[in-house]
Write a structure and sequence with these properties.
This protein has 11 helices and no strands. The chain is mainly alpha-helical and 254 residues long. It is a multi-pass membrane protein.
């Protein structure tokens, strides 16, 4: 790998780490950079997933204040994320991409619109019954599982889907929902990366250059969310997600 490609990937990693830790859009910056560096699509995809592990490390490191008090919820969601990441990696290595790619723009557009819509405080319906509580946890876990399958498979904007889920179901602020998203997506990326490291053509030189940038950008992203007004940031994330959904839709259906 040439020095110019290394610099390109490092810069793309910083941008990807920032956008990934803020909005779950890291692959919008990192994946095209890997293609520009000369990697074929499948190699670029698996290399991208491995490098994005560093975004997860940096973003969780930077999100520690917002993660306080979320341990119980995250411990319940992480098994769903891990199994989903494994399933997504296996799907990538064993099946053609056409069918899955066609539904992703629809999911992303829906999630982006969900982020743009205001979150209303939940109505007081009394103390939830155990059955209702278990049902809510099951639905949330299955949703995390489905999103993390996509995260392990390709991952472009999987974070937007998770962020929308946590905002709509958790009733948290953007910063708290974003912190939870960073942990869950980090686990899904991590288990997929382990599989790709063993069974896929990862380009390790590109991982180093891209990953260092992702670590720096991922560390800075939560600081941006923490000090930015909630509503404008949600609008920017939502609009970026809609734009990406349109681009992915044009790529998938043309």
């Amino acid at each position: 790998m040439s020095w110019s490609h290394a610099v390109l990937l490092f810069a793309a990693g910083i941008l990807g780490g920032l956008t990934g830790s803020i909005a779950g859009l890291a692959s919008v910056a990192t994946y095209p950079a890997l293609l520009l560096a000369g990697l074929p699509p499948v190699t670029a995809n698996v290399t991208n997933t491995v490098a994005l592990v560093f975004t997860g490390v940096g973003s969780v490191w930077g999100s520690r204040p917002e993660l306080a008090g979320q341990g119980t919820m995250l411990r319940r969601m992480l098994p769903f994320a891990a199994v989903g990441g494994v399933a997504g990696a296996a799907l990538l290595l064993s099946t053609p991409a056409d069918g899955f790619e066609k539904i992703v723009p629809v999911l992303l557009a829906f999630a982006s619109l969900a982020i743009l819509l205001p979150v209303r405080p939940p109505r007081d319906v009394g103390t939830p019954t155990r059955r209702r509580h278990v049902t809510a946890l099951t639905v949330q876990g299955l949703a995390v599982f489905g999103i993390c399958i996509y995260g392990g498979y390709f991952g472009a904007a999987a974070g937007v889907l998770l962020l929308a889920l946590f905002l709509r179901l958790g009733g948290e602020t953007l910063a708290h929902a974003n912190a939870a998203k960073n942990v869950v997506l980090g686990i899904a990326n991590g288990v997929a990366a382990v599989i790709f490291s063993i069974a896929a053509p990862v380009q390790w030189g590109a991982v180093v250059a891209l990953g260092l940038g992702c670590l720096l950008g991922g560390r800075l992203g939560p600081m941006v969310v923490r000090h930015t007004p909630d509503r404008p940031m949600r609008v920017l994330i939502g609009i970026a997600g809609v734009v990406l959904a349109i681009k992915l839709g044009l790529d998938a259906y043309r």
